[in-house]
């Protein structure tokens, strides 16, 4: 893949106005799929979570999942949308090798929710209102695995395997209107918007929203136009970006790439683009179709969805607090400074810290581990922090530290074991023998040995030079292979010197 020429970001913003648009796909965590009774959960052996409906077998008919409809209405209300008194499904015709019936059941001209907006808070506290055009229900496609070749994509592959487990999983697609005025904030706004949607669906309890699992995916549309021009530029759509950091990087990259092409007198092709995390670049996918190309027509096997006014009001009354209000409340409850809270929010770790606190950890401890060691390991592995470890495991790790069973040094080793799949924190402690030595007898023996090797240190401590104890503590920690509580060792050293 030839590397594209990129214009300096600041220069690109001097010449062109970026116009954004986002299509965020949210997988709903219903017990069964959108139109069948097949179980809906992540994982499982390929092609086991399926029914004849998911395979498009002749004579099989779809039935709408009522819980998915309720979840979709709740999400529409949380986005400030109007709920349609009647909405209907349509067939989106396209070559879908991972949807056996070769069309997708979606909604087109009559979505369940429309005309809303969501307030997105940027890192410096400014709020940007993103207009929502629609939120519509549909089904997810299956998963293709391309075997052979160097890229894992269809180009160069020897053959492809299809897993229909994901086919038919309930989705809500949230489509924004064109977003104007973001300017240099466009990449940050992209990341913050997707994070806000994630916060909303997690608060609603309608999706696991694990981007690394594909529960929440973003298609990012970017176009540029000269300042003062009313006509929109040709857009590209970077498909299925599955991390907050990648959404931000992909939007920045497309602005720089398109700006250079336009400045050189070239034209932008309306197409889908693929984001490559390893190279930090996008590559061409397929020419982007318009709605007419999909030959939408009403789904003949499904009746319109007609929610009652009572149901809509019941779901409206059950809405959780908006993300911005929740952030203000959490900051106050946790006692974080502006900087501490901003660090958590900017890192996209608000959900993880919140769930860790809910699992029993103190707010400061949760922030320390997520913003510190876990983020460091995530950066080293090129992964999202949330994909490495669960909040419940982090809370369990903190509990072991609080009880004195671990010190920070040992806890870091335990964390790596958990991330490497060795089990819960307690299982890693037991398997590796990493618990802090709490036997004072063993500690005193190590202290006496260290004092015998450094008799001058003992004399200094007796003379009141307590800082000299550091040399003994270091020797004891080395002898105990780090499995000692340094504070307790210090107490015992002082006690020995006082005898």
TrEMBL record:
<dbReference type="InterPro" id="IPR003789">
    <property type="entry name" value="Asn/Gln_tRNA_amidoTrase-B-like"/>
</dbReference>
<comment type="subunit">
    <text>Heterotrimer of A, B and C subunits.</text>
</comment>
<dbReference type="Pfam" id="PF02637">
    <property type="entry name" value="GatB_Yqey"/>
</dbReference>
<keyword id="KW-0808">Transferase</keyword>
<dbReference type="InterPro" id="IPR018027">
    <property type="entry name" value="Asn/Gln_amidotransferase"/>
</dbReference>
<dbReference type="GO" id="GO:0006412">
    <property type="term" value="P:translation"/>
</dbReference>
<comment type="function">
    <text>Allows the formation of correctly charged Asn-tRNA(Asn) or Gln-tRNA(Gln) through the transamidation of misacylated Asp-tRNA(Asn) or Glu-tRNA(Gln) in organisms which lack either or both of asparaginyl-tRNA or glutaminyl-tRNA synthetases. The reaction takes place in the presence of glutamine and ATP through an activated phospho-Asp-tRNA(Asn) or phospho-Glu-tRNA(Gln).</text>
</comment>
<dbReference type="GO" id="GO:0050566">
    <property type="term" value="F:asparaginyl-tRNA synthase (glutamine-hydrolyzing) activity"/>
</dbReference>
<dbReference type="InterPro" id="IPR006075">
    <property type="entry name" value="Asn/Gln-tRNA_Trfase_suB/E_cat"/>
</dbReference>
<protein>
    <recommendedName>
        <fullName>Aspartyl/glutamyl-tRNA(Asn/Gln) amidotransferase subunit B</fullName>
        <ecNumber>6.3.5.-</ecNumber>
    </recommendedName>
</protein>
<dbReference type="Pfam" id="PF02934">
    <property type="entry name" value="GatB_N"/>
</dbReference>
<dbReference type="InterPro" id="IPR023168">
    <property type="entry name" value="GatB_Yqey_C_2"/>
</dbReference>
<dbReference type="InterPro" id="IPR017958">
    <property type="entry name" value="Gln-tRNA_amidoTrfase_suB_CS"/>
</dbReference>
<dbReference type="InterPro" id="IPR017959">
    <property type="entry name" value="Asn/Gln-tRNA_amidoTrfase_suB/E"/>
</dbReference>
<feature type="domain" description="Asn/Gln amidotransferase">
    <location>
        <begin position="352"/>
        <end position="497"/>
    </location>
</feature>
<dbReference type="InterPro" id="IPR014746">
    <property type="entry name" value="Gln_synth/guanido_kin_cat_dom"/>
</dbReference>
<keyword id="KW-0067">ATP-binding</keyword>
<comment type="similarity">
    <text>Belongs to the GatB/GatE family. GatB subfamily.</text>
</comment>
<dbReference type="GO" id="GO:0016740">
    <property type="term" value="F:transferase activity"/>
</dbReference>
<dbReference type="GO" id="GO:0050567">
    <property type="term" value="F:glutaminyl-tRNA synthase (glutamine-hydrolyzing) activity"/>
</dbReference>
<dbReference type="GO" id="GO:0005524">
    <property type="term" value="F:ATP binding"/>
</dbReference>
<dbReference type="GO" id="GO:0070681">
    <property type="term" value="P:glutaminyl-tRNAGln biosynthesis via transamidation"/>
</dbReference>
<keyword id="KW-0648">Protein biosynthesis</keyword>
<keyword id="KW-0436">Ligase</keyword>
<keyword id="KW-0547">Nucleotide-binding</keyword>
<dbReference type="InterPro" id="IPR004413">
    <property type="entry name" value="GatB"/>
</dbReference>
């Amino acid at each position: 893949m030839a590397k594209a020429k990129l214009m300096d970001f600041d220069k690109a913003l001097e010449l062109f106005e970026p116009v954004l648009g986002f299509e965020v796909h949210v997988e709903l965590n219903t017990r069964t799929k959108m139109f069948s009774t097949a179980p809906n959960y992540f994982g499982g052996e390929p092609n086991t979570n399926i029914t004849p409906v998911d395979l498009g077998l002749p004579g099989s008919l779809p039935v709408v999942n009522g819980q998915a409809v309720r979840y979709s209405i709740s999400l529409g209300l949380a986005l400030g949308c109007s709920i349609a008194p009647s909405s209907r499904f349509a067939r989106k015709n396209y070559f879908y090798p991972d949807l056996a019936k070769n069309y997708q059941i979606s909604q087109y001209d009559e979505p369940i929710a429309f005309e809303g907006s969501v307030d997105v808070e940027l890192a410096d506290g400014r709020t940007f209102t993103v207009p929502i055009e629609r939120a519509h229900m549909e089904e997810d496609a299956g998963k293709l695995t391309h075997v052979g070749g160097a890229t894992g994509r269809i180009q160069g592959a020897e053959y492809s395997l299809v897993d229909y487990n994901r086919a038919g999983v309930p989705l809500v697609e949230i489509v924004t209107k064109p977003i104007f005025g973001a300017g240099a904030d466009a990449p940050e706004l992209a990341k913050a918007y997707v994070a806000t949607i994630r916060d909303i669906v997690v608060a609603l309890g309608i999706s696991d929203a694990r981007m690394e699992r594909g529960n929440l995916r973003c298609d990012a549309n970017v176009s540029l136009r000269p300042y003062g021009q009313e006509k929109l530029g040709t857009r590209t759509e970077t498909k299925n970006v599955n991390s907050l950091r990648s959404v931000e990087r992909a939007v920045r990259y497309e602005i720089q790439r398109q700006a250079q092409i336009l400045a050189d007198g070239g034209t932008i092709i309306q197409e889908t683009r693929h984001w490559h995390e390893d190279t930090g670049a996008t590559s061409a996918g397929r020419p982007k179709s318009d709605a007419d190309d999909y030959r939408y027509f009403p789904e003949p096997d499904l009746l319109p969805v007609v929610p009652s006014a009572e149901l809509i009001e019941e779901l409206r009354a059950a809405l959780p607090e908006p993300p911005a209000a929740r952030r203000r409340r959490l900051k106050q409850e946790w006692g974080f400074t502006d900087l501490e809270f901003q660090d958590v929010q900017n890192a996209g770790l608000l959900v993880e810290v919140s769930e860790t606190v809910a699992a029993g950890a103190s707010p400061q401890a949760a922030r320390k581990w997520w913003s510190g060691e876990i983020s460091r390991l995530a950066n080293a592995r090129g992964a999202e922090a949330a994909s490495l470890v669960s909040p419940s495991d982090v809370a369990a790790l903190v509990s072991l530290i609080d009880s004195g069973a671990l010190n920070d040094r040992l806890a870091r080793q335990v964390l790596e074991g958990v991330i490497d799949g060795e089990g819960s924190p307690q299982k890693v402690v037991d398997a590796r023998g990493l618990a802090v030595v709490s036997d004072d007898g063993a500690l005193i023996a190590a202290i006496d040995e260290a004092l015998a090797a450094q008799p001058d240190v003992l004399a200094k401590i007796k003379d009141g030079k307590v800082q000299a104890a550091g040399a003994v503590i270091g020797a004891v920690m080395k002898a105990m292979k780090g499995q000692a509580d340094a504070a307790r060792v210090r107490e015992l050293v002082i006690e020995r010197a006082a005898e």
